[in-house]
Design goal:
526 residues; alpha/beta; 7-stranded mixed β-sheet; 24 strands; disordered N terminus; binds 1,4-dihydronicotinamide adenine dinucleotide; binds magnesium ion
Length: 526
């Protein structure tokens, strides 16, 4: 049904551009399909939308350009999806602005809540398909994808719950006036997301934007657009009105930039590299957009001698190897107190050797493929650099297999603080381990970074844990755990790791602005 109507609208646009009936026929047949059947590695077949999602329907790009999406575990193509250009951004922003102005920003809170609750339910119902899409498109293990999808539905539901709890303040300014403040939505929000958690980042962006009455134009990463398009169809089913959510897969430099510069886009929310974050801030500056950024990291993970060492080892392994190391807050710098250094390193080596790397769909696979050839090359280049810098490879250090972008989980030991592998975000399963002696020593080393996204502390001494957490410059501190996200707990960075917080109540501040109202009272003495 939808398929036919989308094809029809595509064809009609073809006519509108050419004004010729025979070009109608040509376009109908030359245009790529807007939905394709895809057989997942687990044997089930589903229908994947491949069009841009604009104003409530899947449509081809204005210039009919498509791009190939590949499976990083096999290096084989999965499908072709339409690639948005600047004309499509224009259409998407127009649709989002119309939806904002005409009804969504003033809709009853209950309307917004219902949409988000329904969307959360649908994500749950489609969880297995969504997880499989994510593993196929990104390469991460199915176990990781299932965890992502579970947090997506929890987070969307949590967002829905805020709809009727967005309070303002009454402000006492004396008896001759009545003053209060309310929080209002911003307008059309441009949202640009990365490829490491495609669906989770989609939910972190659209959830708080929608519940506060904004509309969105979201750009998924070039390499992983499938889950966002599949979820767009769930938005339709959940009753999210046309134009409220628009999805435009395409190039960061072209349409990412167009969103950042568009005068009708009032806010940019971005997750990705610090370098691109800087460009986005510059491009958004001209129209003074509100900007929130979740950027890179090089997070320290500290093991004190009094920790439960077996648990600590599992946490430092999970800290770096979870999601194939493609995690902005990965605990990529491990610091171990000198008296237990050798013991922890040996336990860490043994535990790492037990992690199964390979086909994301195999049972028990812990670590799947890196997401692209570009990431594989970057990681292997850093391994080479680490060896040249004189760091010792304890385990790993190589590509695994000749097909698929698999990398062995890799531990570098005896590193020095000024090595590039200790300074730079590698974004793969590569960890550095070094010794420290005192609290002062490790706090100094941990904080010696341009980044400040997260930090881990492992100790049985709760007083020490709290005291050290106060001194660490990071947006999230995990104590005796790591990569432990929760929909109610804000997440975001100090320093060059970003601006703003996602999840929890803090995320709502990114999507609202304060309006103050002060009214004179004529008869204050009555
Ligand atoms: P990137 O930051 O360039 O890409 C992230 C998103 O930004 C994508 O959707 C991309 O299309 C878009 N983008 C790129 N250039 C843009 C521009 N000029 N204006 C607007 N949007 C733009 O990251 P990339 O190149 O994919 O990965 C390189 C490195 O970045 C990784 O190795 C990793 O170190 C880091 N990274 C960090 C992430 C995080 O979660 N903090 C996520 C992804 C990458
Ligand atoms: Mg892909």
């Amino acid at each position: 049904m939808l398929h036919t109507s989308c094809l029809r609208s595509a064809a009609v646009r073809g006519i509108a551009r050419s004004g010729m009936a025979n070009s109608y026929v040509l376009r109908l047949y030359s245009s790529a399909p807007l939905r394709v059947p895809i057989t997942l590695p687990n044997g089930t077949t589903y229908t994947q939308p491949t069009g841009l999602f604009i104003n409530g329907e899947f449509v081809p790009s204005a210039d009919n350009r498509t791009t190939e999406v590949t499976d990083p575990s096999t290096e084989l193509p999965i499908a072709r999806v339409f690639k948005a250009g600047t004309a499509d951004v224009e259409n998407a922003v127009k649709a989002a602005k119309t939806a904002f102005d005409s009804h969504w920003s003033t809709a009853d809170p209950e309307v917004r809540a219902k949409c988000l609750f329904k969307l959360a339910d649908l994500v749950e119902q489609h969880a297995e398909t969504l997880a499989a899409i994510e593993s196929m498109d990104n390469g991460k293990s199915l176990e990781c994808s299932r965890g992502d999808v579970s947090l997506v539905s929890k987070y969307l539901r949590s967002c829905g719950g805020w709809a009727d709890k967005l309070y303002g303040n009454v402000i006492d300014t004396g008896k001759e006036h009545f003053a209060y403040s309310v929080r209002e939505p911003l307008g059309v929000c441009g949202q640009i997301i990365p490829w490491n958690f495609p669906l989770l980042m989609w939910s972190w962006k659209i959830g708080p934007a929608l519940v506060t009455g904004n509309t969105v134009v979201l750009k998924p990463a070039e390499t992983t657009p499938l889950s966002a398009l599949y979820a767009a169809q769930l938005c339709q089913e959940a009753g999210v009105p046309a134009g409220v959510v628009n999805i435009v897969p395409g190039s960061g430099r072209v349409i990412g930039e167009a969103l950042c510069k568009h005068p009708d886009v009032k806010k940019i929310a971005f997750t990705g590299s610090t370098a691109t974050g800087r460009t986005i801030m510059r491009n958004a500056a001209e129209t003074v957009k509100k900007v929130t950024l979740e950027l890179g990291g090089k997070s320290p993970n500290i093991v004190f001698a009094d920790a439960d060492l077996d648990k600590a080892v599992k946490n430092i392994a999970h800290g770096i190897f979870f999601n194939s190391g493609e995690v902005c807050c990965a605990g990529s710098r491990v610091y171990v107190q000198d008296s237990v250094y050798d013991e922890v390193l040996e336990k860490f080596r043994q535990y790492t050797a037990s992690l199964k790397v390979g086909n994301p769909f195999d049972k028990d696979t812990y670590q799947g493929a890196q997401t692209s050839q570009k990431q594989l090359d970057k990681i292997l280049d850093y391994v080479k650099r680490g060896e040249e810098e004189g760091a010792r490879v304890v385990i790993g250090g190589k590509r695994r297999g000749a097909k698929g972008y698999f990398v062995e989980p890799t531990i570098f030991a005896d590193v020095k603080e000024d090595m590039q592998i200790v300074k730079d975000e590698i974004f793969g399963p590569i960890v550095t381990v070094s010794k420290f002696s005192t609290v002062n020593d490790v706090v100094h080393k941990a904080n010696d970074s341009q980044y400040g996204l997260a930090a881990g502390i492992h100790t049985k001494d709760v007083n020490k844990a709290i005291a050290v957490s106060r001194r660490l410059k990071a947006g999230t501190i995990w104590i005796n755990t790591y990569n432990a996200f929760h929909q109610s707990v804000p997440f975001g960075g100090f320093g060059q790791s970003g601006i703003g917080r996602e999840m929890g109540a803090a995320a709502l501040e990114n999507y609202t602005q304060v309006k103050s109202v002060r009214m004179a009272i004529d008869a204050p003495e009555i």
